[in-house]
Amino acid sequence: MININKQPSKTVKAVGLISGGLDSSLAAKIVKDLGVDVTGVYFAMPWGCCDKTKAIEVAQKIGIKFIVLQLDERYLELVRKPKYGYGTAMNPCRDCRIHMFSRAAQYMRHIGADFVFTGEVIGQRPMSQMRESMRIIEEETGLKGKLLRPLCAQLLDPTEIEKQGLIDREKLLKINGRGRKEQLELAGQLDIPYNQPAGGCLLTDKNFAQRMKDTLDHGYRNFYETIALKWGRHFRFNKDIKVVLGRDSAENESLMRHAHPEDTIMQLTDNLGPTAILKADAPSTQTLAQVAGLIQRFSRYKDNETVEARYWLKKDKNQMRLIHSQKMDEQQIIALTI
Ligand code: SF4
After folding, report:
1. Quick one: 13-190 is in which CATH superfamily?
2. What is the biggest distance separating any 2 CA atoms in the chain, rounded to whole angstroms?
3. Which of 66, 193, 211, 258 has the smallest number of CB atoms closer than 10 Å to its CB?
4. pLDDT in tens, 48-87
5. Residue 197: pLDDT over 60
6. Which residue, 134, 67, 56, is CA-closest to 106?
């Protein structure tokens, strides 16, 4: 029998997954208002995510603790080969959730918390928020009975947390489906800011997914390299040589800042054109001339016979050298484009 009236005799602690979006914010507010000591956990994607600021704002507004856990090479390997396959692009939603929830479970044990909760709503997402998926995720993360979904808990079997009276099941909700009406009403009642999603998960974006696949197929120096996948024009010369060109000065800056120390950076000597990041070990003179040719194509000098460029290893700007471009035609460029 479910003991819904028992009052907890100790401070109940929980770890909540906070994305900065509406559902996880509501879940955090509901659990916090039940007297639980909540720590919000935000998972930072390897390629960065602008929702982190929103997540911090929500945590401050609700008055909960907040930490960021970085997703790294382990996450990229999961994206490379997900056990449960992909969604519409390269989004391995079920595996992704298993990974995040497992790390949240580790953190729960680390701080002596009683359970993990999420803002999931049954029936909202085809791949990861159907009843069967939710059950599998719970079992694979070792969170059986300890994973609470406050927004739809009354539509699910009671968890151990509810059975033990740590949380009053009657105060939990029974929202289901893809609609947002109930959540929006609730946000108004609970004074939770509604943040428009900031573009969604990049793994569901077909262009980004194509670049990610290329990176995972050919290897990467470290997970920070994937940050650059969201900027610029990307070209694959062969399995060992890749080039990224910025599309404007902001991208040029970002690409240079995030380049690996072993990457070669190239610019026209007058700097009027894109910056190129060359990912290759000891590139040949011909490769360097072709990279300069790519820069030339996307500069004001595209009709010139050749242009002069300078290049250096990111880790050693003092060793700057010069090269003349080898002009590239459109067919060559299309063939190289990722
Ligand atoms: S949409 Fe992206 S972040 Fe969300 S579960 Fe799927 S892969 Fe993970």
Report:
1. HUPs (3.40.50.620)
2. 83
3. 193
4. 766 888 899 999 999 999 999 999 999 999 999 999 999 9
5. no
6. 67
Does the beta carbon of 118 sit less than 6 angstroms from any atom of ligand 1?
no
Alpha-carbon distances, residue 90 vs 70, 99, 150, 200 (angstroms):
20, 16, 29, 13
Q: What is the reported pLDDT for 7?
A: 52
Question: What's the pLDDT score for residue 51?
Answer: 80
Q: Whose CA is nearest to atom 5 of ligand 1?
A: 93
Predicted local confidence at residue 52, as pLDDT = 87
CA of 286 to the centre of ligand 1 (A): 41
Ligand 1 atom at minimal distance to the Cα of residue 79? 7
Length of the chain: 338
Q: What distance in angstroms lies between residue 329's CA and the mean position of ligand 1's atoms?
A: 39
Q: Which residues are within 8 A (CB) of 253 and not within 5 positions of it... i.e. 6 or more apart?
A: 246
How far apart CA 120 and CA 148 sit, in angstroms, is 9
Summarize pLDDT for 207-242 with one digit per residue, the tens.
Answer: 999 999 999 999 888 888 898 999 999 999 999 999
CB 35 within 8 A of CB 27: no
Which segments of the chain belong to CATH 3.40.50.620? 13-190
